[in-house]
Known about the structure:
Layout: H1 2-11, H2 20-31, H3 34-50, H4 54-60, H5 66-79, H6 82-91, H7 94-97, H8 100-112, H9 116-125, H10 131-143, H11 147-156, H12 164-177, H13 180-189, H14 195-205
Helix pairs in contact: 2-3, 2-5, 5-6, 5-8, 8-9, 8-10, 9-10, 10-11, 10-12, 11-12, 12-13, 12-14, 13-14
Amino acid sequence: MPEKVFDLLDQMTFKHDNYTLPVLFNLCAQVANDQAMNTGRKLFHEIPVSYRNDNETKQQGAVLNEDAWNILIGTCSKVGMIRQSQYIIDQIPLHILNLKQIQISLVHMWSKCGSIKMAQSIFKSVHDHDVVTYNAMINEFGLNEMGFEAIELYRQIPNELRDEVTHICVLNACSHAGLLDQARNIFNEISFKTTKILTVMVCFSI
């Protein structure tokens, strides 16, 4: 039972590090009951002591790498806590914050937290957009029923850069927003219609 894990954690006194913190946050997000959330909040409050400055964190062995930050960001996405999400972002070192995968994770996190404007702000801060970053933002527009914004961004992507995922994301965005005519226009413009693209359009048209 997950509850027994949290009971055990309450009895333990060791300092959490680069490996244990992300795992524990992820566990809290997956369980997502009152006890898990209380444990998560307790861990959040412990972070300031561990992250006062780079020298101290290095000495304590608590410097998080890109993978660890991705897990923490993903945890915030699952629980949708805006204040804690902003706190986590404020702790991310600049050299990590500028990594594209981290930025994509932040776009998803802010969208899940209900702050699409913050997601857009992160997206706009990406210096060199590729198909993955475009697809991520279009997908988040779709999940927030912002079909016209998804279409507008889709139109900004060079044709040679669009892939199957791009087409599926924008068609799904149209579906969430009820934009059938716009979806048909986009579908007709797609030169190579894969089975997945056809399936999305068929399901939308039913």
